[in-house]
Design brief:
mainly beta; seven-stranded mixed β-barrel; four-stranded antiparallel beta sheet; globular
Length: 297
């Protein structure tokens, strides 16, 4: 998955364009094993071509195989998944429900699934998972896992791959960007939002300037390398209270619309990155920008 970076159009040298870029470190790593469900904070993780280990490996679908997300099923937020270190077992927990522990099936027949209108395949995880999710979510649902041969191409400045994520392997967000958002919200007399509403994979501290995560072309963290793909467009999932699984809008979208509208439509916060070199990530790792973008994206 390694890719050459730098030297071409839109590339800057190390340190170029880095005003406001102080000593940056990883202060949070969050993986989301089941698309749309609660995140799992980890202190370290393998970084695969598709992102943090187990990230969006599973997806809840309706009986026809169409994806479910918090946009239409906000109660997904209260489902807390846990994957064993080897990926062989999955445990699901939710309020007022007995935990469900299942052996992960990576061998059964594939079934067609729909993710934002695009056709993929998944391995159904069985009747026990289907019954548990249907009861917790209050709507008939099934659980699928990406098959080992899953091959999905994601777009952006650096194309990559991912499991069942919306788009891109990693979502990076800096504390400076998050704090700036909440400052704007509270100055307008409204209630600040939690970072869990924004569902980042990698949280960065040490960049003083908000939105600095938008500007690198390539980043080195530990023994891994990441390439900027695109800005992270925000949707109605940010309106869901991640603790209760209920809509709590209109923030942060109302405030983001005042200063982060994008020319092609929508509002952006944070950035998506593709994995150029796999390895390991850990909280405390230093972040080095090896090339900055120059000019317009």
């Amino acid at each position: 998955m390694a890719a050459a970076v730098g030297g071409g159009e839109g590339a800057g040298g190390e340190g170029a364009g880095g005003e406001g870029a102080g000593e940056a470190v990883v202060v949070g790593l969050i993986t989301y094993p089941v698309k749309g469900c609660a995140g799992v904070r980890v202190t370290e993780s393998d970084l695969t071509p598709a992102g943090l280990a187990h990230d969006r490996t599973f997806m809840v679908v309706d009986p026809a195989g169409v994806y479910r997300t918090q946009r239409a099923t906000p109660r997904l937020a209260v489902v807390r998944p846990e994957v064993s270190w080897d990926g062989g077992r999955l445990t699901l927990r939710a309020p007022d429900a007995e935990p469900l522990d299942i052996a992960v099936d990576t061998e059964s027949a594939r079934r067609d699934v729909d993710l934002f209108g695009a056709p993929f395949t998944g391995i159904d995880q069985g009747e026990a998972a289907a019954r548990w999710l249907s009861r917790v979510l209050g709507t008939e649902s099934r659980l699928v896992r990406v098959p080992p041969e899953h091959d999905r191409r994601t777009d952006g400045l650096h194309p990559g791959t991912s499991g069942y994520a919306d788009s891109g392997a990693l979502h990076m967000l800096s504390r400076a960007t998050f704090d700036d958002l909440n400052r704007r919200i509270t100055e307008a007399g409204r209630t600040a939002v939690t970072m869990s509403r924004l569902r980042p994979n990698v949280v960065v501290d040490g960049w003083d300037e908000p939105h600095l995560e938008d500007r690198p072309l390539a980043i080195r963290i530990g023994n891994t390398e990441l390439g900027f793909a695109k800005l992270a467009l925000r949707c109605a999932v940010t309106l869901v209270d991640q603790a209760s699984g209920e809509r709590a809008g209109p923030e942060p979208l109302r405030t983001l619309a005042t200063y982060r509208r994008q020319p092609g439509g929508g509002v952006a916060l944070g950035a998506k990155y593709s994995v150029l070199r796999t390895g390991k990530l850990a909280v405390g790792d230093q972040i080095t920008v090896t090339a900055w973008q120059t000019g317009d994206r």
